[in-house]
Amino acid sequence: MELFSYMETYDYEQVVVCQDKTSGLKAIIAIHDTTLGPALGGTRMWMYENENAAFEDALRLAKGMTYKNAAAGLNLGGGKTVIIGDPRKDKNEEMFRAFGRYIQGLNGRYITAEDVGTTVDDMDIIHQETDYVTGISPAFGSSGNPSPVTAFGVFVGMKAAAREAFGTDDLAGKTVAVQGVGNVSYNLCKHLHEAGADLIVTDIHKESVERAIRDFGAKAVDVGDIYGVDCDIFAPCALGAIINDDTIPQLKAKVIAGAANNQLKEQAHGDMIHEMGIVYAPDYVINAGGVINVADELSGYNRERALKKVEGIYDNLAKVFEIAKRDGIPTYKAADRMAEERIERMRRSRRQFLQNGQHILSRR
Predict the structure, then answer these.
(1) What b/e readout covers 29-45, taking b as 16+ CB neighbours within 10 angstroms?
(2) Which residues are marked as active site?
């Protein structure tokens, strides 16, 4: 991988390589864009095949956070960290303390949070070295488990998508097929059940399915059958890349709206479902409740205020649908355009401010 060439092509600002021999820390902090504010993005710990794979993941994820934060209306840029190692056996206190010192050295340009392979306990250790960390224990004034708030955001976004597809955001009587019934989607099912929706669920874990049947009267289907069920809304809440050549011909839903990341296997699949008339709620817009929630910690966490901001996902998706119709493009492209337009407006504003400042100075 030609790092500088890649960074120039996709306009990355900074990559920090962190190493601590004593603890075994090997980490990459990627900062994509800070036009809107400090870069916020989680720390992922993973056993990468090689260093190139780790760099590519950090860069890809950082850019994704730029778009996610911009689309969510946050005054935050995009960044991400990957730590190379096995999260089940390679963690130690010294590692996360050393990593916290690297974050502190960036002086607020990057703010981290938990991600795949890291936990609240890990964030608490990082917090011993820096204040530039979110998702720490509630005892420190944090928001705690983000799953219920993420689920609420997906529910709100699903209502916006339903209004676009059916002319009403009332979900009573609508059949929703939920793929995966983990922490986020269990809470989503709770909201849907209370709204009067009928649920069809699947999960690789039998106990998760049984809980949804018991608590919400859901109907269960085999994992491979969820795509083809008769439903109004398909909610992917498990794996990514599940909208693909194999699954698209099976779909009967008019709406795709769920919590999973990277739902489209390829951009072409977004074009395909657009041509089929399916209303797709772009994943990084509808599942932004978690990042909106932890971002509120930066102002001193207030749950009522955070939930009010999460309700804004409804309007964010409405704007995505408006742009899609305005420009005649699929919604996944419209989401990118919405984020890019917001970033560009801020860049122009800053340039104008600097030019005005220079003009004033030149007249003195």
Answers:
(1) bbbbbbbbbbbbbbbbb
(2) 80
